[in-house]
Amino acid sequence: MKTNDVIIQFTAKIVFFIIFFFSIHIFLAGHYTPGGGFVGGLLTSSAVVLLVLAFDLNTVRKVLPINYTYLTAIGLLLAFATAAFPMFLGKPFFTHFFDYFDLPLLGKQSLHTAMLFDSGVYLVVVGVTMTIIQTIGEDE
Amino acid sequence: MLQVLYIFIPMLAAIFVPFLYKSIKNVHTGWFVLAVPATLAIIYASYIPKVADGEVFLEELPWIPSLDISIVSYIDGLSLLFSLLITGIGSLVVLYSIFYLDKHKEKLHNFYVYLLLFMTAMLGVVQSDHLITLYFFWELTSISSFLLIGYWYNRDASRLGALKSMMITVGGGLMMLGGFILLYLMGGTYSIRELIVMAPDLVEHPLFTWSLVLILLGAFTKSAQFPFYIWLPDAMEAPTPVSAYLHSATMVKAGIYLVARFTPIFAASELWVWLVTGVGILTLFWGSFFAVKQTDLKGILAFSTVSQLGLIMSLLGASAIAFHGNGATDTIKFAAFAAIFHLINHATFKGSLFMIAGIVDHETGTRDIRKLGGLMSIMPISFTVAAIGGLSMAGLPPFNGFLSKEMFLTAMLALQNFEFSGFETWGALFPIIAWVASIFTFIYSFYFVFRTFTGKYTPEKLPHKPHEAPFGMLISPMILAALVVTIFFIPNLVGDTFVKPAVQAIQPFLYDSPQDVDIHVSAWHGEITPELLMTIGIVIVGTLLFVALPKWQGIYQKFPRALTLNNVYDKIMLGLDVGLNRVSRLYMTGSMRHYLLYMFSSIAVIVLGSLFVKNAFSISFQDTAPIRPYEIILVVVLVIGTAITILAKSRLTAIIGLGAVGYTVALFFVIFNAPDLALTQLVIETISVALFLLAFYHLPKLGKREERMRFQLNRAIVSIAVGVMVTLLALSAQSQKLIPTISKYYEETVYSKAGGGNIVNVILVDYRGFDTLFEITVLAIAGMAILAMIKLRMNRKGKSHENK
């Protein structure tokens, strides 16, 4: 990388957090407004990609020591487990549950098992895109 | 709930095995695994008293209710007996494997994961009352046994043996699935219990014979019946604990189970009786005859298993005559009893013999019977166990094999007395073949035991200096050998608790409860019976032939290799390989252009053709919205972007052009009120442009290889056709709305049914969750594939660097 990219590196650090929190927001908002696991995951990876472009792969790997193949596996497992869980209650595969709960600090909120499934999607999307980008970027 | 869960306990336990293996190094992983089958065995044992009284247990867990598919666990006498064999022998095998497989040298985590997977599959097979789930578990046994047989995957023979067993058993399984579907078409239910009830009506159905033959193909391939047995000897490449488990007690008996389970449905057919009995007795003879040819200890046992499975099969076939009523006397009713009884006996003695073969291999380093001999004084305990198992296999008292063999002979003798479907004339063949086959059984049993343990001791031929096996390795075969003797002395206890409930399950029309099965096993009937005379004949002729074995064993060498079934299999496999290779080479040219040409032209032909056939060209512009000026602008941008992408001289320009196209499409989504899609499209565009930039550095320059493209008419035709197709498709889809759009339904139910507000996302995670689930699975697989491709290439590069 070039030496005089201080500005892009500094901006990238800040923008990374903005995009990252926005992606979390988008992910959580998914059930009622535009968003969801797919977009959220993609946004998160694009935030990491921004870091990769500003710095380089090895630096990013040191800062975020995440094994993305594991992340993919965990996400897939979570998705399958959420789908399979109702079977143990005698309900068909992929039955979702939801209700409203009064949570401390947050007040009345709705909780969905669909959300768990969606986080599986989120993790898989992040895992796979980052795996691909990392392997292709490394191939030198 | 619990009963279904028991089936899956081994599979769930398998998840923890790799972690245990990696984190706890100094304890053999087998000790943890042992707890699983042992616990299950105790659980299933608690069912025994109630099942022996004739109770059945049924539990259903819906799986895909809309397709009428559920996991049904049905425990009656038959399935309980098998479940006990699977978990009981399973525990002993795991115990044995702890001492057999070295914890430092072997990949234990792989081994036990496969083994536990197999256990779940087997339990599922024997307890499923649902045809589709039965098939599911059935193929799962094929897959997990493939992994187990190929456990030492760096040996060619293991891989080939695993492949062979999978090709044959999965092929048979597919046939069986066909038979199941036919049964469903006839009876309208997947439940085996319900099919049994309606069995009398099914016989008349024209599809009945087809389904019978197809299901029998499944059973015969799995149980290694003639001519499908050829996979079993090759499967001996598996580690010995696997052989002892899969090839004596469990997997090969799945076919027996299937025949037993379907007997009430199909027994009314004469074809069933002839096929099952005929193939069984032929297999019995064939297997016992060729067992004497083998020189590998496990080879002998493999052929012996083939032959004994044939014996059980022929008994089941004979028991089906009881359903025909006419002339079916009490003698034939106990063919079913004999089959089940022999099944238990076979599991005990064959299991112990396999373990002994493994011990001999482990301690001397060879299984070649020509090198072995005189081990009796060095390995006295092993010899004792081998002698008990061997003599039981030969059908001698005081071992359990004697009892079931007597009953087998009685049943075969009874066959000639029936006035039924040609049995009055051809039936006489059965006792003769059975007798000859029993002589060979006697010979190979003696051959196995006495060639190994008596005779001249030749230490110079052995790779290791032999000594008695460690005690832990001997526990399991000793327990089995003890059972062999115990069952001989208390056959009726075993008969009442295990065999009679199973018999009642096989012949539900004849008995109301297990107690009605009026059969008493006794070693000595107080008189000289024909079968006793036959046994004496077997012993005399068998001993003479065994002593004279070196003189006549040479006849096996005269058998031309070209005529063997293995040769036929090899020829078929080779022919398929070469033929299919030739076919794929025709279209797999390696050129992307060709592939795209095939794909696009076939899509265009199919879609345009169906549009033409269905006369779907009537296009109306009534409902279309007015075209707004900025839409025209966007279209122009889109066209320019596309043109730039194609015509650009530098790659960077092309990437930017492509990006422009993508962002414009996203803008279209925004205009047409699809924020979700727009959002996703935008992010994807960003990431893919970033990916391109990452890869950019490595790609060759475009300009250097520039050449004048010749105009090719066929490509022009295909491109125009695809363009026309897409346009027409869009227009006619818009013009013809026969059914109201589904979006109304989503709008109405998205809150009440799914508790959400964003239709797109709720569709993704709820309405069409299956879609998403498989989508992310595909995504994950694609990611892994890219990782594997690039990482593997890098590793190879790294290695070649080292070599330099």
Describe the structure.
The complex is a heterodimer of chains A (140) and B (804). Chain A has 140 residues and is mainly α. Chain A has 5 helices and 2 strands. Chain A has helices at residues 6-29, 37-54, 57-63, 68-84, 113-138; strands at residues 98-103, 107-112. In chain A, strands 1-2 form a two-stranded antiparallel ribbon. In chain A, α1 runs antiparallel to α2 (37-54). The model of chain A has no long low-confidence stretch (mean pLDDT 83). Chain B has 804 residues and is mostly helical. Chain B contains 33 helices and 2 strands. Chain B has helices at residues 2-23, 29-45, 48-52, 77-100, 108-127, 131-149, 156-187, 192-197, 199-202, 208-222, 231-234, 240-249, 251-266, 270-291, 297-319, 330-364, 380-394, 400-415, 423-426, 429-453, 471-489, 491-506, 530-547, 549-552, 565-587, 592-613, 629-647, 651-671, 675-696, 713-735, 743-752, 759-767, 769-803; strands spanning 57-64, 69-75. Chain B has a two-stranded antiparallel sheet with strand order 1-2. In chain B, a hairpin with a 4-residue loop joins β1 and β2 (69-75). Chain B is elongated, with a radius of gyration of 33 Å. The model of chain B is unreliable at 800-804 (pLDDT under 50). The chains are: A mainly alpha (140), B mainly alpha (804). At the A-B interface, α2, α4 and α5 of A face β1, α29, α32 and α33 of B.
Largest sheet of chain B: 2 strands, antiparallel
Low-confidence region ranges of chain B = 800-804
Residue-averaged pLDDT of chain B? 84
The main sheet of chain A orders its strands as 1-2
List the helices and strands and how they pair.
The complex is a heterodimer of chains A (140) and B (804).
Chain A: H1 6-29, H2 37-54, H3 57-63, H4 68-84, E1 98-103, E2 107-112, H5 113-138
Antiparallel strand pairs in A: 1-2
Helix pairs in contact in A: 1-2, 2-5, 4-5
Chain B: H1 2-23, H2 29-45, H3 48-52, E1 57-64, E2 69-75, H4 77-100, H5 108-127, H6 131-149, H7 156-187, H8 192-197, H9 199-202, H10 208-222, H11 231-234, H12 240-249, H13 251-266, H14 270-291, H15 297-319, H16 330-364, H17 380-394, H18 400-415, H19 423-426, H20 429-453, H21 471-489, H22 491-506, H23 530-547, H24 549-552, H25 565-587, H26 592-613, H27 629-647, H28 651-671, H29 675-696, H30 713-735, H31 743-752, H32 759-767, H33 769-803
Antiparallel strand pairs in B: 1-2
